Structures are given as structure tokens and as C-alpha cells.
């Protein structure tokens, strides 16, 4: 192993007490010091790690233990000893008392040096599983030391023989893990391979100096420098030491922080679990991170490390977004802790969001509705996200999200008070959009698509959402499907019953037929958004929040021919005020041929299979000849992989977005 020179920051005299204290600390923590020795026979310098024990009369004993790199101390010249102290090296030339085969006894001198950079390598005292993947297959190895840009591992002779390891690959893929958590996977370059008594000692250099987990975006997460600055605290996975740094800036997707200099055991691509972010008011959040870069700072800033969040509890993430949105704009609230329901209902009625026709539908259920919405806005269940913009103590804008499918959230209840602020509604939409931009790449957020329903003659959504769809130019990027809407299945009567149809549970062949028809008609994102594959994730989230949710898929047949696919989606009534979260969706597989009575009869039959008090209904494609239809809705769906283009359009349309 090579030993490089350190840049000496200062030389201290009368330091024997300080050195004794540091060696006592090493003994107390069962740590090790590095001893740099010179082999006079091969004219080569080596570094070994030795345990510290206490001798007599102020002496210290440094023992090799099971280290095989040096068989006998007596054939070497002891050059100096190094102790790692935070972000610097303490280096001194010991006073040699005695030299034995496996142990040396020393006294500390009065003079020592402080070096500016950390040791070249760090002994790995934590048990990590290391696998090397090459054309020889997967080989298990023991991690010995870790450096900033390299690692040293040992492949036992048994493993060499078993896997027929040959050092012919210049590059090897390395996987480091512990208890199922993968700390690192990446390509390394073989710098050196030495045969030892126990096996082959490999020196591997990290091939990539930078790491990119996600494609670059123009509209990135908003980074904020908070006052007071939060702390980030985590354990070094290689030696278990606790590291704590001040955060420079933080967003909903990651952090950056400064360390005095590049630190051994921190490098791009490294994953760390159970990281704590501590705010000044003793608020602590826990998450997992992945380092993306460790760059030299400017103007003496040391090293700047950047990391993204890779795993965070949704509730904790919402708490973080509450802090960040409030720090950016004191009037913006995400799932507000204290909200007056009287003011919220006053806002809904005054802005005309609850218009007369809508109120006629919900009036008979007003007590249940009050109870439901009080729970939604005070208990903040995980399947709902509420965004409120206030002016002083008054609500002037509102928008909400409801997780309706496995990875798709319904955006609804958007309203703004134009009398207070002409751009209040845009502020709320911007709030929600930036929240989505922060969280959609994090797996626990469970969000790949957002969708909403709007009336085609409503100018604002037609301009904004319709404009986005036209701008993105691709139905697999953003799609709009027009559907007919029936507000209450219970209230309409089938004037004609189609007795020739039969309703069955849908099979995979029925799905394929329906998907083929939909692709020909629309080519949109409906089937991707619905995620017809069985998933218990969203079901468990609803149950945990105290709600019911059921999704059943049926096929409607005349003889052996499928004429429709019917989706029964059942949640709590009026979680969406148009009851679009508690609905029957009929996909007409024979548009232009399937009669209205067939569609309505199918909807009635499926509604009778549900235990819901009442359901709404949606028909695709929109059915103009059906008298029971109340209005048409446009179903707008956005694939969040293209959220950058969404922001590009909205920021052009609204300068304050």
C-alpha cells in the first residue's frame, strides 16, 4: 500500500500530554493508530494499523494482532505514527523503547505535526458484505480499508480457487451492502493485485468521480438556506463514527453541506441509511441519502458534498415540505396543522366552488360531508395532500390531491378568491406543482402520474391544462380524453333494459381487447394511470387512513362479443365533491354501435354489485345521445417524467409561477 505525503499545517512543541490523551482515547474506543514503517530490504514504505494498549511508566504498546502484511517488526525502521483526529492527521516520531516481533513499545515525544488532509485510508471496522462482479462471475471479498477514491479488499485463496479468479479484468463492479441495505454499487478499476498469505489483496480505484442518479432537469428543486442552519448527522458506514455537518442548502429532494476537506469514507454513489436532519427547533427527520458529488469548495470552503433523498417516509416528507414552503413563502401551507373548517367552507361557498347545482347533489349528505372533511383537513391522512394559500388570516386559494390509484393522484378542488388576489389560484397551483416536482422521483411518494377532471368550457383549466397537452405534443406524455358524466347512478331510471347483455369479471384477454380499442381511439395514458395490475399498496394506505377503497373490473358481453369494460371504483362518498372518486367508468369498446340502453343497463348492473349509497358514472368516449348525461368532463393525465416540459409551459404562461 502506498503512503503519500501530507501537507503540514503546523508543528507543535510540548505536546506530550496531548499525544498521551489521544492514545488513551484510542485505547478507550478500541481504535487503532497507523504505523508507517520502512522495509530496508525491498526499500519500500508500508502502513499498518495497530491496536493501542497501556504499558508501564507512561509507555504505550502497539500490537499487530492478526495483521499479516508485516510478519516481524524487527526487520523494519519505524518512521512515524499517525492518529486520525476529525479532519486532520496527528503525526509524530515515537521514542522507541523496545521492538518485539509483533509489538513495539514507545514513549510519546514533545513534538508533533498537524497535517491538513485525512489519512489515505480508513480501516473498515464495520462488517460489510463485499461482492466483486466480473467475467469470472460473482466473487465474495473482505473489505479491509476504504479511501476517498479507492478501496482495498482481500479475496481468500478458497474463494480464488472456487471462482477461478483471474486478474485479467481491468474493471470490476463492486457491491457493498449490510443487512440487505446496499451502500454502494459501481465500477472500479483494478490498480494493483498482490498475493499474500491469506489471499489476493486488491487495490480498486473508483472509476467515476461524479454520480448522476437522475437525468438532469432545467426546473430543479428549489434550494433554500435556512436560518438557523439545520444539521445533518449520520454514521460512517465503514468505521461507525458519527459525523455531523451544517447544511448549506436543502430542498425536498436533497441537501448540500460543507466539510472542512474531502473525507475518507464519503464518495459519490455512496448510500447511507438512517440519516438525521435536525432543525433548530429540535425537529428531527430521518431518511436515507445517496451522495451525488464531493467537490472542492471555493474561497476556502473546503469540500462541498451533495446528496439526494432516496427513501423517506411520506408523512415525514410532507413535514419537510411544510417547513420549506413556509420558509419560501409564509402564506403557503401544506397540510396545515391548524385550519378553521368554518373558514374553509366559507371559502368554498364564497368563491363559487360549491355552486348551486353541486350543492343540490351534496345537500342531503351535508352532515357526513362535514365530518369527512374535518377528518381530511385535521388528521391529514396519507392518501390526501392539501395546499392552502392565505392572506393574513383569510384563505384565498386552495387545491388538493387524492391518491386514487397505485401511482396516480387526482388533483381536484382548485379554487381561488379573485377579490383578494387575482393570482391566488395560480399561487396554489404553483404550490402543488412544486411539491410534485420535489417528490415524484422518491419511491415512497408513489406518484408517477397526476390527473384531473375539468369541464371543457371552463376557460382557466382549458387554457392551462389544455395548453400543456398541446405544448407537450404526445398522448403518452400528456393526454386528454373527453367523457360523459352522470352525477347519480341511483337517481336515473333505465327507460329501456338491454336484456341481451351479461356482466362478468374481466379476464386478461378482456384487458387486452379494451386496451387495443382505447389505443385506436385515444392512445392516451388512461390504462397506464389506472394500473390494472393487482397492487395492495394503495389499498393498505386507505385502510391505514381509516377509509374504504375497492376497485373491481368487469366486462360486458353480448353473446361472445365484448361491448364494454367497466371499472367500479369505490371510496368514501364525496371525497371528491363531484363524487368522481366513487364512480363507475364505462369504456365503450364499440363506439357508434353500442346503444345507450346497453351502456346504462351495464352501469346499473355494476352499481347493484356495490354497497355504496350512490355512485357517479363516466362514459368513454363521450356519449352525446344519452339523456341521463349531466355534462362532459375532460380527463387530463400527465406523465411526470415530463414535468420539466409542464413547468416550461406554465412559467411562460405565468411569470410568477
TrEMBL record:
<protein>
    <recommendedName>
        <fullName>Type IV pilus assembly PilZ</fullName>
    </recommendedName>
</protein>
Amino acid at each position: 500500500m502506498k503512503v503519500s505525503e501530507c501537507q503540514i499545517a503546523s508543528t507543535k512543541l510540548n505536546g506530550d500530554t496531548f499525544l498521551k490523551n489521544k492514545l488513551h482515547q484510542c485505547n478507550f474506543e478500541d481504535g487503532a493508530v497507523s504505523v508507517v514503517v520502512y522495509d530496508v530490504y525491498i526499500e519500500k514504505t508500508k502502513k499498518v494499523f495497530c491496536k493501542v494498549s497501556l504499558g508501564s511508566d507512561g509507555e504505550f504498546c502497539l500490537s499487530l494482532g492478526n495483521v499479516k502484511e508485516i510478519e516481524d517488526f524487527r526487520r523494519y525502521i519505524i518512521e512515524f505514527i499517525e492518529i486520525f483526529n476529525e479532519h486532520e492527521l496527528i503525526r509524530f516520531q515515537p521514542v522507541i523503547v523496545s521492538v518485539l516481533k509483533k509489538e513495539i513499545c514507545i514513549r510519546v515525544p514533545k513534538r508533533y505535526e498537524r497535517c491538513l488532509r485525512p489519512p489515505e485510508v480508513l480501516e473498515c471496522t464495520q462488517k460489510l458484505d463485499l461482492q466483486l462482479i466480473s467475467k469470472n462471475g460473482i466473487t465474495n471479498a473482505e473489505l479491509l480499508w476504504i479511501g476517498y477514491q479507492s478501496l482495498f479488499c482481500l479475496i481468500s485463496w478458497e474463494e480464488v480457487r472456487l471462482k477461478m479468479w483471474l486478474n485479467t479484468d481491468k474493471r470490476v463492479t463492486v457491491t457493498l451492502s449490510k443487512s440487505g441495505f446496499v451502500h454502494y454499487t459501481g465500477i472500479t478499476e483494478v490498480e494493483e493485485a498482490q498475493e499474500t498469505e491469506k489471499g489476493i489483496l486488491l487495490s480498486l480505484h473508483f472509476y467515476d468521480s461524479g454520480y448522476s442518479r437522475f437525468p438532469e432537469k432545467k426546473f430543479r428543486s428549489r434550494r433554500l438556506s435556512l436560518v438557523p442552519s439545520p444539521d445533518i448527522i449520520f454514521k460512517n458506514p465503514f468505521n461507525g463514527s458519527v459525523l455531523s455537518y451544517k447544511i448549506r442548502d436543502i430542498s425536498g429532494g436533497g441537501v448540500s453541506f460543507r466539510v472542512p476537506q474531502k473525507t475518507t469514507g464519503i464518495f459519490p454513489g455512496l448510500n447511507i441509511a438512517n440519516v438525521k436532519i435536525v432543525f433548530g427547533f429540535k425537529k428531527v427527520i430521518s431518511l436515507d441519502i445517496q451522495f451525488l458529488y464531493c467537490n472542492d469548495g471555493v474561497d476556502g470552503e473546503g469540500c462541498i458534498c451533495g446528496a439526494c433523498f432516496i427513501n423517506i417516509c411520506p408523512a415525514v416528507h410532507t413535514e419537510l415540505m411544510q417547513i420549506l414552503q413556509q420558509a419560501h413563502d409564509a402564506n403557503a401551507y401544506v397540510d396545515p396543522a391548524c385550519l378553521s373548517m368554518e373558514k374553509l367552507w366559507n371559502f368554498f361557498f364564497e368563491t363559487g366552488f360549491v355552486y348551486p347545482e353541486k350543492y343540490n347533489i351534496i345537500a342531503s349528505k351535508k352532515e357526513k360531508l362535514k365530518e369527512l372533511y374535518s377528518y381530511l383537513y385535521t388528521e391529514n391522512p396519507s392518501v390526501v395532500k392539501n395546499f392552502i394559500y392565505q392572506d393574513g388570516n383569510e384563505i384565498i386559494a386552495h387545491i388538493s390531491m387524492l391518491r386514487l390509484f397505485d401511482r396516480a393522484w387526482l388533483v381536484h378542488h382548485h379554487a381561488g378568491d379573485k377579490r383578494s388576489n387575482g393570482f391566488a389560484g395560480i399561487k396554489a397551483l404553483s404550490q402543488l406543482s412544486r411539491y410534485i416536482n420535489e417528490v415524484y422521483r422518491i419511491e415512497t411518494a408513489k406518484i408517477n402520474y397526476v390527473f384531473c377532471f375539468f369541464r371543457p368550457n371552463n376557460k382557466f383549466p382549458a387554457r392551462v391544462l389544455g395548453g400543456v397537452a398541446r405544448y407537450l405534443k404526445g398522448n403518452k406524455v400528456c393526454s386528454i380524453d373527453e367523457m360523459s358524466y352522470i352525477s347519480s347512478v341511483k337517481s336515473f331510471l333505465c327507460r329501456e333494459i338491454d336484456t341481451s347483455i351479461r356482466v362478468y369479471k374481466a379476464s386478461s384477454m378482456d384487458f387486452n381487447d379494451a386496451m387495443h380499442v382505447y389505443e385506436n381511439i385515444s392512445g392516451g395514458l388512461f390504462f397506464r394511470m389506472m394500473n390494472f395490475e393487482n397492487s395492495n399498496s394503495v389499498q393498505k394506505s386507505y385502510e391505514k387512513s381509516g377509509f374504504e377503497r375497492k376497485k373491481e373490473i368487469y366486462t360486458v358481453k353480448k353473446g361472445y362479443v365484448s361491448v364494454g369494460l367497466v371499472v367500479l371504483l369505490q371510496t368514501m362518498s364525496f371525497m371528491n365533491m363531484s363524487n368522481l372518486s366513487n364512480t363507475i367508468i364505462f369504456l365503450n369498446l364499440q363506439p357508434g354501435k353500442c346503444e345507450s340502453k346497453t351502456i346504462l343497463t351495464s352501469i346499473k348492473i355494476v352499481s347493484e354489485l356495490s354497497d355504496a349509497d350512490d355512485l357517479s358514472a363516466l362514459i368513454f368516449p363521450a356519449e352525446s345521445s344519452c339523456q341521463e348525461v349531466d355534462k362532459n368532463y375532460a380527463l387530463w393525465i400527465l406523465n411526470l417524467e415530463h414535468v420539466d416540459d409542464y413547468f416550461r409551459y406554465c412559467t411562460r404562461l405565468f411569470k410568477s409561477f
